């Protein structure tokens, strides 16, 4: 038995744990909750053993490196770190409610590896990666990412619990209308050339920034707007994962990836970037439907969650503690990465896309800690900042690798 087989068993364990945690919330059965925790511990144990075996296997092959250097290994380590921190949180706060939000992330990350056809080979490091700084940089960064993932899950729970009502149906209409306008405008401007495409994305970024600042300043007073933001975050997370999963399955069935090509070059060809107008319309129709469903049913989920989750003060405290742990780790990851970059490329900072987005993420969480320490903010505004921070983490980790090019492009899918 090799490490990849153990990772498969860990994926199955996380799938079972995910189902059991959700069932625990749905049926209020303590026995189901205990089974979910036990299977989570077992999956974490299997994954820990598998990581150690992969490290040993690299030495047996004469390569001898820490298993943290490509997308496959980093996804595995990110999952391991997230589950480890979740287990600690579950033990400390004596609640299993968060498992229904964390374990789907762990399962989907490992399942993504299997469905995407990501190479699991243990290959020699490229010259730039042959450094002891690799271990420190990746280890510290991903422990920080894992802490932010837990903070995001808890923030989503907090925002939902904090809502008194979902607001008028007009808000949903505004959200769907904005989605339609932005989609049509985006496609039209992208078709007009690269410069107009850049203008669109810059403008969209400014709009999101304005909405973000509005929510921070008015979040405690305009709860329906925050609920709309919550619905947007959940739709984005689920919608992108479903779209990528569909694309990967479709491409594996219909495409033969040629030498020199990668799966990332063909992502969204079956959905958002399809040459068929019908496919694009159906895809956006499904996203709009998902947005409507989440906005409409969120308050029903709240009624279920309030029976299991701790008070809002504890939720706020968990988010703060996770970010207070994650931000110094991210800082350490950026610093060790700079030292590593200087030894590899002769410069501490080159404004590579991944470096730039890491800095953006660092600033978002710095704003969170500043607002907490200096301004004394708690509650809704802080949960919004935590959510935006993790969206930046996701783009830093996956978006840069899959969409942009740069010195970190070796992390893409092979």
Task: Name a few traits of the molecule.
single chain; 414 residues; mainly alpha; 12 helices; 77% helix; 0% strand; globular; disordered C terminus
Write up this protein.
With 414 residues, the chain is mainly α. It has a domain at 1-125. It is built from twelve helices and no strands. Helix 6 (169-191) runs antiparallel to helix 9 (277-305).
Q: How many distinct beta strands?
A: 0
Question: How far from one another are the termini?
Answer: 24 Å
The biggest sheet, with number of strands, parallel, antiparallel or mixed sense and barrel status, is: none
Beta percentage is under 5%
- Coarse shape: globular
The number of helical runs is 12
Structural class: mainly alpha
Order of helices and strands: HHHHHHHHHHHH
Detail the poorly predicted runs: 409-414
Mean residue pLDDT: 81
Topology:
Layout (H helix, E strand, L loop, with lengths): L2 H25 L2 H31 L10 H23 L5 H18 L16 H30 L6 H23 L2 H25 L4 H32 L22 H29 L6 H34 L7 H23 L4 H24 L11
Helix pairs in contact: 1-2, 1-4, 2-3, 3-4, 3-5, 4-8, 5-8, 5-10, 5-12, 6-7, 6-9, 7-12, 8-9, 10-11, 11-12
Please provide a brief summary of the model:
By secondary structure, the chain is mainly α.
